[in-house]
Amino acid sequence: MTTFDAPSRELCTVRRINTNTPLQALVTLNDPAYIEAAQALARRMVKEAASNKIDDRIAVGMQLALLRPARPNEITALTKLFDSRRAHYATHFDEAVQLATNPLGPLPAGQDAADLAALTAIGNVILNLDEFVTRN
């Protein structure tokens, strides 16, 4: 909790100060709980998107996590990241399976490991946004 500037429990704190440090980003990008949450978000993006298009899946993920529609520039940036991660995981199958399944569990029926791993990376980025971590 120190990493996230948790206040002392000796006094009541009405409002915490907003901070964002490199240590916080390392926790939210690498902690097993955040990886599992990113996997779950990726699976919901697949399940709840109106189509198989990555734009639709990203829009669903942003809406679920931030409770607002994704902006066009956000979709563009996350689509580029998805394409990059998808290309990597297409040639590194073991890494794809690891990221897409550990610790949440086996791939859902009919899912491609590279796609789900790339979406997990997208989910991890969304869950690492300051807007998600510190919602005012």
Q: How do the SSEs run, as a string of H and E?
A: HHHHHHH
Number of strands: 0
Radius of gyration: 16 Å
Count of spatially separate domains: 1
Shape: globular
Percent helix, as a range, is 55-70%
- Largest sheet: number of strands, sense, barrel closure: none
Characterization of this structure:
By secondary structure, the protein is mainly alpha-helical. It has one domain. It is 65% helix and 0% strand. The chain is globular.
What are its keywords?
0% strand, 136 residues, mainly alpha, 65% helix, single chain, 7 helices
Question: Could you give the topology of this structure?
Answer:
Layout: H1 22-30, H2 32-48, H3 54-66, H4 72-91, H5 93-101, H6 113-128, H7 130-133
Helix pairs in contact: 1-2, 2-3, 2-6, 3-4, 3-6, 4-6, 5-6
Short structural description:
The chain is mainly alpha-helical. It has helices at residues 22-30, 32-48, 54-66, 72-91, 93-101, 113-128, 130-133. The protein has one domain (20-133).
